[in-house]
Each structure stands twice: as C-alpha cells, then as structure tokens.
Amino acid sequence: MNYSGLLALIAGAAIATQASMNARLGVILQSSLLGTAVAFAFSCLFTLVAAALLTTDYPSAGEVRSVPPYLWFSGGALAALGVGLFYYLIPKMGIGPMMSYALTGQLLVAITASHFGWFELPVKSFNASRALGVVALAIGIILINRE
C-alpha cells in the first residue's frame, strides 16, 4: 500500500468513526438534523482554522470568478444530505450495514464519474475487470448484511 492508499484508509476510518459519534449526538439531541448542524458547524470552524494556518497561495479574484456557480453550493448541499442521512440511518441500521450501503453508492457513482470523466476528472473506462468488481461488491454487500 502506498502513501495515498494509507491516507485513504485513514480517511475511511475517520468517516466511519465520526459518523458513529455524530449519529449518537443526534440521538442524544433527539434530532439527526441538529446533530448534522453541530457537526458541520465544528467542521467549518476546524477547516477555516486549518486553511488560515496552512494556505500560502490564495486564488486570484479572476480565478474565484471563474468557478462555475454550481460548484459553490452543490458540494455542500450534497455533503449535508449525505451526512444527515448517515446520522439519521446509523441508529436505525447500525454502522456496518449503513457503511456497506453507503460505500456501494459511493463506488457506483465513482465508477460512473470515472467512466464519463465528470467534473474534468481522469477518465477510466468501465471494462470487464470493473464489472467483475461491481459483481463482487454486490455479493459482499449481500453477505455483510445477511442475518
């Protein structure tokens, strides 16, 4: 495993841990939406502090104006939807099943985005190997969620 793979593994572990913790916060606060709002408020604070401390080269005004309008709000809206659903569903489903379904959704969209090069990302065509991976993923989800 290379450095990027290790960081991706750590990111996945962080997401599963924070999702479990913030789902519990939503249960305690009796509102998954409120738990989501608290999580995003602190995420925003931590991110702003990190950006202020670590960013040395800021974009020009022209670069900022060139950003398509949908990129300013869509990612945040989708993040709030996805995270809010995590916090709502984890207490109902459990972390394992929730993460297995969520990961499946992420991978299916990622494969599609890669195939078509959405958002100017590198293109990786759907092929037999990836198709086999999707089948293996489906089998894995069935086995993980078997009673």
Question: What is this structure's SSE topology?
Answer:
Layout: H1 3-28, H2 32-54, H3 61-65, H4 69-93, H5 95-116, H6 128-144
Report on the architecture of this protein.
- The chain is an all-alpha fold and 147 residues long.
- The protein folds into two domains: 1-93, no CATH class; 94-147.
- The chain is 80% helix and 0% strand.
- The chain has helices spanning 3-28, 32-54, 61-65, 69-93, 95-116, 128-144.
What characteristics describe this protein?
147 residues, mainly alpha, 2 domains, globular
Main sheet, how many strands, which sense, barrel?
A: none
Q: In what range is the share of β-strand residues?
A: under 5%
Q: Portion of residues in helices?
A: over 70%
Specify the number of helices.
Answer: 6
N-to-C SSE string, H for helix and E for strand: HHHHHH
Q: Count structural domains.
A: 2
pLDDT averaged over residues:
92
Shape: globular
Low-pLDDT runs = none
Structural class by SSE content? mainly alpha
Distance between the termini: 33 Å
The gyration radius over C-alpha positions equals 18 Å
How many strands in all? 0
The gist of it:
The chain folds into two domains: 1-93, no CATH class; 94-147. It contains six helices and no strands. It has helices spanning 3-28, 32-54, 61-65, 69-93, 95-116, 128-144.
